[in-house]
Design brief:
Elements lengths: L13 E3 L4 E3 L17 E6 L6 H8 L2 H4 L3 E6 L3 H10 L4 E4 L2 H8 L7 E6 L2 E2 L1 E6 H7 L5 E2 L2 E2 L9 H9 L5 E4 L5 H12 L21 E4 L5 H6 L5 E5 L2 H8 L2 E6 H4 L7 E5 H6 L1 H23 L2 H8 L9 H8 L2 E3 L5 E3 L4 E2 L10 H13 L9 H11 L2 H14 L32 H5 L14
Parallel strand pairs: 3-4, 3-5, 11-12, 11-13
Antiparallel strand pairs: 1-2, 5-15, 6-15, 7-18, 8-13, 8-14, 9-10, 16-17
Helix pairs in contact: 1-12, 12-17, 13-14, 15-16
Length: 458
């Protein structure tokens, strides 16, 4: 076996500088064929969303077993239960919101050191509003050939909220968890249109201080029924729960998170720090299997997506109608009923280095925690970098990737070997703001709505 970039390390130890963890590896000349995993029977958790797909595919295609892992996949009731069970060790790892390892590690909510060696996907969420709200928004949208011009900006929602306020009605929206990408994407979109989504504070964790649109938690599978009941006026969620609203005729997706931030990082695979320290080879084996699954999902121009839809539609995974899952998983997305548009990158699992755990991805989430008051006080740029490096583990990812290259399961060009952990600065946001993960405080200064140095919320 030849490890082009890690050969000598494979005979000594894998030092994971990203988290300050020393991975003592017992390796042999046959390491590429079979890691000597410390724990081979694992239980992994997930929420019933299409972006849990790498777990399902790694199981169904035998990638876990090829790494010597015998995995049980268990759906979880909600994100809090999922996180708590990873912390207690009832789950060995899980499909997680990107914000969960960050929040837990810095002590926002449940305190625990959670890490990730693998980013599960890019994009995949959307914001849906009720039919009533959609009808009220349409006069304020730019139209072409009797169809809305996308992306639809939140400025079209501003007059609706003003009408609600005049009538003494609260405008309520659902998101899946306080530290979810959905919460931050919904807030980003609203604020970009001049709508205040509310602050968090030390003493008020509702996130509704000074709000014009009131955001609260609703579990993903309950989003459509809650919208239909009139309890919320819109929501931000992953698939298939936006397309479910279209198929049920109860709501209209107005914007995808691809349109809010092109190729934004989504879920991660989360593990406790304690697990990775005790089971370094198992952690690498898991990462290898998940990388292979992500590759299968995207390879040959998404040729495997219809098979993936059939797998995900099964009751043990997402359990939704295949037609609903396919509506967003196979290169298209349906907005208003009958308005089907090509969105080939709505779900990305492998291309664009989707699975690499970039520090800059972690830092973006931390900036949003600060922007909305979950991080209550100003932090220097160095704090953001240090925090990201304690949670995101690219050394483990690169080690797993090199093994896959040596085994012929992946191409060397599939991985960003020379990255320093930061994506290039980008202005691919709905408001055109530029994000550079090296300068989080300068980024926060761009926004009219939101906290920045030295502000806090009392």
């Amino acid at each position: 076996m030849t490890l082009n970039r890690f050969g000598e390390r494979a005979q000594k130890a894998l030092l994971c500088t990203a988290a300050g963890l020393a991975f003592s590896l017992t390796v042999s000349s046959a390491l590429a064929d079979n890691l000597d995993v410390e724990k081979d029977e694992l239980t992994l958790g997930f929420i019933k969303l299409t972006d849990m797909a790498p777990l399902a595919i790694a199981y169904e295609k035998g990638y876990f077993e090829e790494e010597g892992l015998f995995v049980t996949l268990e759906p979880q009731a909600n994100w809090k239960v999922l996180l708590d069970r990873v912390i207690t060790g009832e789950l060995d790892g899980a499909h997680m919101l990107a914000g969960q390892p960050l929040a837990a590690t810095i002590g926002y909510g449940t305190k625990a050191h959670i890490v990730t060696p693998f980013s599960m996907d890019l994009n995949g969420n959307a914001i849906t509003v009720s039919n009533e709200v959609w009808d009220m928004m349409k006069p304020h949208m730019e139209m072409k050939d009797d169809k809305p011009v996308h992306p639809i900006k939140a400025s079209a929602l501003r007059p609706v909220i003003e009408q609600y306020q005049a009538e003494g009605r609260a405008f309520n929206m659902g998101m899946v968890f306080p530290v979810s990408s959905h919460n931050y994407e919904l807030r980003y979109w609203l604020a970009s249109g001049g709508i205040h989504p509310g602050f968090y504070s030390k003493d008020n964790v509702s996130g509704q201080l000074e709000a014009e649109a009131f955001l609260s938690v609703t579990p993903p599978p309950q989003m459509p029924s809650t919208l239909d009941a009139g309890t919320i006026d819109g929501y931000c969620v992953g698939e298939p729960w936006n397309q479910a609203a279209v198929f049920k005729g109860i709501g209209v997706p107005v914007v995808t998170n691809f349109e809010i931030w092109k190729n934004n990082p989504e879920k991660v695979f989360g593990l406790s720090k304690e697990f990775t320290v005790a089971n370094p080879n198992t952690t690498i084996a898991l990462t290898k299997a998940l990388i292979r699954a992500a590759k299968w999902l995207d390879e040959n121009g998404n040729a495997n997506r219809f098979e993936a839809v059939e797998i995900l539609s099964r009751s043990e995974y997402v359990g939704a109608d295949p037609e609903v899952i396919a509506a967003s998983m196979t290169g298209t997305f349906e907005y208003e009923k009958g308005d089907v548009r090509d969105v080939p990158d709505f779900n990305v699992f492998y291309r664009y280095f989707a699975t690499y755990p970039y520090y800059s991805d972690a830092i973006w989430y931390l900036t949003q925690m600060r922007r909305w008051g979950q991080i209550t006080d100003h932090k220097p740029d160095s704090w953001y970098a240090k925090t990201a490096k304690s949670i995101y583990l690219p050394e483990i990812y690169r080690y797993a990737a090199q093994l896959l290259v040596d085994e012929g399961h992946a191409a060397e060009a599939d991985f960003p070997w020379d990255t320093d952990g930061y994506r290039a600065p980008t202005d691919d946001f709905i408001d055109g703001k530029t994000y550079d993960g090296r300068y989080p405080n300068a980024y926060l200064e761009h926004f009219k709505i939101g906290l920045k140095k030295p502000a806090n919320v009392s």
